[in-house]
Amino acid sequence: MTTRPRWFTDTTPGHSEWYVERFRTMADEGADLAGEARLIDAMVPPGSRILDAGCGPGRVGAVLHERGHTVVGVDADPVLIEAAERDHPGPRWVVGDLATVDLALLGETEPVEPFDLAVVPGNVMVFLAPDSEREVLRHLRDCVRKGGRIVLGFRRERTYPFARFDDDVVAAGLTLEHRFATWELDPFTEDSDFAVSVLRVG
User: Fold this and answer.
1) 112 and 106 Cβ atoms separated by less than 8 Å
2) What pLDDT does 105 receive?
3) Burial of 160 (0-12, 13-18, 19+ CB in 10 A)
4) Which H or E element spans position 175?
5) What secondary structure letter does DSSP report for 128?
6) Once rounded to an integer, what is the mean pLDDT over residues 160-169?
7) What is the pTM of this model?
8) What is the pLDDT of residues 98-147, one digit of tens each?
9) What Rg, from alpha-carbon coordinates, does the chain have?
10) Taking 70 as the threshold, does the pLDDT of residue 2 lie above it?
């Protein structure tokens, strides 16, 4: 089994740079890139601690920071973290694999306090290393305080079907509270090709 995320193994050379420029262009053109952040902001009190897991170039964490939250973003791709640091100063951006992430990694000189919520946007779950998804959920659980939430959104994929995700949620000791078809809370059905799942940390 490879421990290298699909983000690296299943994409072409230059993909990371293309991804960064794509979102810069969309931002310059006035595209709405804050949908995930609006939902997360509505789910937590002002000034909450939020982990942006699989943060990419920082578009979600940046909005949450602007809205007064303490944000730490982590991503396995140093190209994306470099872009986040350049384009969105303020949050702490960390290079790290979600399969091994912990509070010590996320702190600058010492472990940080557990987060109130972890958000996992941008199809991160389908770009993880094969068969690492359950371990990722366990590590995210350990980064969030008891009673906090993990909110994940990803598309339907044969490599990681929603039913298997649900099994991994239970195995990781998490509880599925809600599921929607979009970040705008459209109802989830058997035909939905995207799922936003709200998990509770027990």
Assistant:
1) yes
2) 95
3) buried
4) strand 174-180
5) S
6) 98
7) 0.96
8) 999 999 999 988 999 999 999 999 899 999 999 999 999 999 999 999 99
9) 16
10) no
From CA 43, how far away is CA 76, in angstroms rounded? 26
Report d(CA 55, CA 129) in Å as an integer: 16
Distance between CA atoms of 187 and 196, rounded to whole angstroms? 10
Query: By the 8 A CB rule, do 74 and 97 touch?
Result: no
Is residue 61 within 8 Å of 55, Cβ to Cβ?
yes
b/e map 18-45, b = 16+ CB within 10 Å: ebbeebeeeeeeeeeebebbbbbbeebe
Give CA–CA dist 42/37, Å, rounded.
9
For residue 73, what are the β-bridge partners? 52, 93
Helix runs in the chain, H state only? 6-9, 15-28, 35-43, 59-66, 78-87, 103-106, 133-143, 162-171
Residue 180 amino acid letter: F
Tokens standing for 151? Answer: 């909110």
**Phi then psi dihedrals of residue 30, to 5 deg:** 85, 20
For residue 106 the two structure tokens come to 């996320």
Q: Which amino acid appears at position 51 of this protein?
A: L
